[in-house]
Design brief:
Glucose Oxidase, domain 1; single chain; about 425 residues; 18 strands; Aminopeptidase
Length: about 425
């Protein structure tokens, strides 16, 4: 399903505010609307489309769940003062545990209590719970003060009217292809579109990737760069289904970046890929030295990067986030806690990593002996660039097809773009070749 572009505002945070009010469950009308809004914000050059996988589809060891519809959920207390409504999902969709099955029961406090959820860290907020995705469950969420005030000796009436229907798990996909050749390989930038009434998690990640897409269109990658695929999907099951349905793409995926929780004041956390020795890890770690130290794979809860790094896939994907933050998985996660400057900073980091990884290559020497630099316009005046002048001899000894341009730049301790510019001149003169 193609999506036509539209105006959703110029600021990165504008997209967060557009996505935030939607009840973005795994699948459903509001999730579909979110994917449409993202497509409208992306540049048309990405040829954005929305793909889908039907409920019941077996994707490796996983099964795409059914769509959950809940139009009514109330909790009432019955005591000597009459009947009083304690919780009503009409006031906030987070009042009911996502994917709760239907229930109509009269309960004692002891029977009800295991089905009630609060946030100790944010006592005035509702927690967001999703216990029922893959196993039967039901429950209500409420502020701690309301929970504490509930009588323990009263009778309660819990009513949830929900149904599970055959639906379609959808993902929004856009592609920038500088070379126009899929065999050139690609990077995958991923954010999850689900999580109802959550702004930082992960409407902010979606907004950052849209901003990166805009920048890459405004200042395009060179024609010899890797493709960049943008994937917006439901967390974990969304990327599982997309990769399963598009298995032919997997050999072309050279790496990726998962972005979430991007807009709060906390420092940026980099979690390296499971492989940990990929050039992507080295690039991200080097650049992140400007922000925060890298952390090993598995040091934070795994999300979509855990899918790409998973057994049999082994696509090195790093994770960038500002987790943890105090409002996590509660109704306190609103656009008010998000900073435009922090979203821009995250976009800076993602863009910088993409531009280096997408343009990095392994140069192979095609000359013998010391180079006659002046003959080919390769001499660098030491009075103009002393560091590069002194590094040229070392660079020429590193062109044996074992190191990429980025790795060579690290060896000689120079900026990647400076070293790439000089090696590109070697390639243009036929003195080096790009290794496939």
């Amino acid at each position: 399903m193609a999506v036509q572009p539209d105006d959703t505002g110029d600021g990165v945070k504008d997209l967060v505010e557009a996505l935030y009010p939607l009840n973005r469950t795994l699948m459903g009308p509001d999730t579909d609307k979110a994917l449409q809004i993202i497509g409208a914000a992306l540049p048309p050059e990405l040829d954005y489309r929305i793909d889908g996988t039907p409920s019941g589809t077996e994707c490796w060891t996983w099964t795409v769940p059914k769509e959950w519809v809940c139009n009514y959920a109330v909790l009432r207390v019955e005591n000597g003062c009459g009947i009083r409504t304690v919780v009503d999902v009409a006031n906030n969709p987070l009042h009911v545990v996502n994917y709760s099955h239907s229930v109509d029961e009269r309960l004692t406090w002891d029977e009800l209590a295991p089905h009630l959820y609060i946030s100790e860290e944010n006592p005035d907020a509702l927690p967001w719970r999703f216990d029922g995705y893959y196993q039967p469950a039901w429950g209500f969420c409420l502020p701690k003060s309301r929970y504490d005030a509930l009588p323990r000796n009263a009778a309660y009436h819990a009513v949830i009217k929900s149904r599970f229907t055959a639906g379609t798990l959808k993902a929004g996909v856009g592609l920038l292809s500088p070379s126009g050749k899929p065999e050139a390989g690609e990077l995958v930038l991923c954010a999850h579109v689900d999580h109802p009434r959550q702004a930082n998690d992960d409407a902010s990640g979606c907004a950052v990737l849209v901003e990166v897409a805009r920048r890459l269109v405004e200042t395009p990658l060179p024609e010899d760069a890797l493709d960049v695929r943008f994937l917006f999907c439901a967390e974990r099951i969304g990327s599982i289904a997309y990769l399963y349905e598009n298995g032919w793409l997997i050999p072309h995926m050279k790496g990726g970046i998962f972005v979430e929780m991007a807009g709060t004041d906390g420092p940026i956390r980099l979690v390296r890929s499971r492989r940990d020795t990929d050039t992507l890890d080295a690039i991200a770690s080097r650049l992140m030295g400007l922000w925060q130290d890298a952390q090993p794979y598995g040091s934070a809860p795994s999300n979509d990067e855990g899918v790409f790094n998973g057994p049999g896939l082994n696509i090195p994907m790093i994770s960038l986030s500002r987790w943890p933050y105090g409002q996590y998985h509660t109704t306190a996660d609103t656009p008010d806690i998000i900073s435009e400057a922090k979203l821009e900073e995250m976009a800076d980091v993602v863009e910088a990593i993409v531009r280096i990884r997408a343009t990095d290559y392994v140069p192979v020497r095609r000359f013998t002996g010391p180079l006659f630099l002046s003959k080919y316009g390769l001499w660098v005046d030491w009075r103009t660039d002393f560091a590069l002048n002194r590094a040229i001899d070392a660079i020429t000894h590193l062109l044996e097809g074992e190191l990429s341009v980025f790795e060579i730049a690290e060896k000689v301790r120079l900026d990647y773009w400076v070293v790439r510019g000089w090696i590109d001149k070697l390639v243009a003169n036929g003195l080096a070749a790009r290794r496939d």
